[in-house]
Amino acid sequence: MKVTAIICAAGKGERAGFDKNKLLAPLWGAPALWHTLNKFDMPEIGEVIITSSKDDFEEISALAAPFDFAVVAGGATRTESVKNALEVATGDIVLIHDGARPFLSRTLIKKCIDGVKKHRSAICAVGVTDTAVYRDLQRLDRTALKLIQTPQGFFTEDIKKAYAHAGDRSYTDDSAVYAEYIAKPTIIDGELQNRKLTFKEDFDVPPLPPYSSGRVGFGVDTHAFGEGNCVTLGGVKIECDRALIAHSDGDVLAHAVMDALLSAAGLDDIGHYFPDTDSKFKDADSMQLLIGTAAMVKQAGYVPVNLSASIQAEKPRLKNYIEQIKQNLSRALSIPVSAVAVGAGTCEGLGFVGKGLGITAYATVTLREV
Ligand code: CTP
Ligand code: MG
Q1: I want to staple 297 with a disulfide (CB 3.0 to 4.6 A). Which of 8, 31, 117, 265 is the partner?
Q2: Which atom of ligand 1 is found nearest the CA of 99?
Q3: Are 56 and 21 in contact (CB under 8 A)?
Q4: How far is the CA of 198 from the centre of ligand 2 (A)?
């Protein structure tokens, strides 16, 4: 069964008091929303749709691009935003989640999907541990209270029907719409860590723990110069008075990154999977091979976290092409551009690179478990 995730990000974040949407404010060195998107980048989720205001559309689209997630225009209220996203949802099951809750675990996402399969709906909520009173100090029975979170999961046709009935009425969450028009929703255990970023203080969080399953891989590749008028590096064709001799398109940088990925995942090296004796790879587009390598690594249970690469070339001059190379690599690996570093330098006339005989590329990647 295909699962769609709707990530609500079309708010203004007024209570947080930044000079922009709180979801674009930094958390652990990246926009807060990036962390939420990263959590939903998992095999169980077949489609992700993000709601965005007009003002943030460009910035949110740039964050979504490496993940291949869709962005739709939100509305003036959360209810309207969800309604717009539901219109284009194609999954059988839909999980609706606040972009402002980046701290949830992937285990909770899986529990929510399983909850829908079992109970038709699954609303994450936690119990109350503090004593609860009304403003006039009259006591509330805290054992009867729950604090509702997201994700909230439903069969897509049910929640679409509920929102159609809701018309122009506005609700603070989706379980309220479901409860009013479909049935009493099922509550499942949420997570205390799954807090919502509402105020500025909510962004004061302890530093990220190191990735416990982090794996590092190193890759290197060299090609010699021959006759020609262009070299390809990171998928960018760069004019040059020579070309790199190769069976494929000779993209040394893409090859070094592929080797680093395979090595970090504990797989065999590039020559094993893409032998230069195989006519299939004659003049191959190495960026397509890189995308294929990333898919193999994902199959082995890992996805990239960051890439650091360095190119040694006496010519051509690479400075003006680095940004495009970074964007291509970011797209191929589904990581943000900020997680891709590409350096370039000459060898001061020393060795084969210095003598202009060829180009060498080095790459290091880290992986996390899917
Ligand atoms: N949201 C949305 N469309 C809206 C309003 C809110 O998609 N018209 C999203 C927010 O981006 C947020 C989630 O719904 O991820 C929960 O809303 P909330 O925490 O209230 O965020 P904001 O509305 O942005 O914040 P504030 O109410 O402080 O302005
Ligand atoms: Mg709001």
Answers
A1: 265
A2: 15
A3: yes
A4: 9
Report how far ligand 1's centroid is from the alpha carbon of 10 (Å).
6
For the stretch 212-247, pLDDT in tens is 557 999 999 999 999 999 999 999 999 999 999 998
Task: Kindly state the DSSP code that residue 136 receives in the 8-state scheme.
Answer: T
- Ligand showing the shortest atom-to-Cα distance for residue 14: 1
Tokens 């590092």 locate to 216
Cα 36 to Cα 23: distance, rounded to the nearest angstrom: 10
**Nearest atom in ligand 1 to 76's CA:** 8
Q: Which residues have any ligand 1 atom within 6 Å of their CB?
A: 8-15, 23, 51, 74-78, 81, 98-100, 196, 198
| pLDDT per position as a tens digit, 175-192 | 999 999 999 999 999 999
Amino acid at 226: G
Which segments of the chain have a pLDDT < 50? Answer: none
Nearest CA residue ID for atom 10, ligand 1: 11
Our mutation pick for probing the ligand 1 site, out of 19, 36, 96, 98, counting the most ligand atoms within 8 A of Cβ, is 98
pLDDT per position as a tens digit, 127-158: 999 999 999 999 999 999 999 999 999 999 99
3-state SS of 238-292 is EECCCEECCCCCCCHHHHHHHHHHHHHCCCCCHHHHCCCCCHHHCCCCHHHHHHH
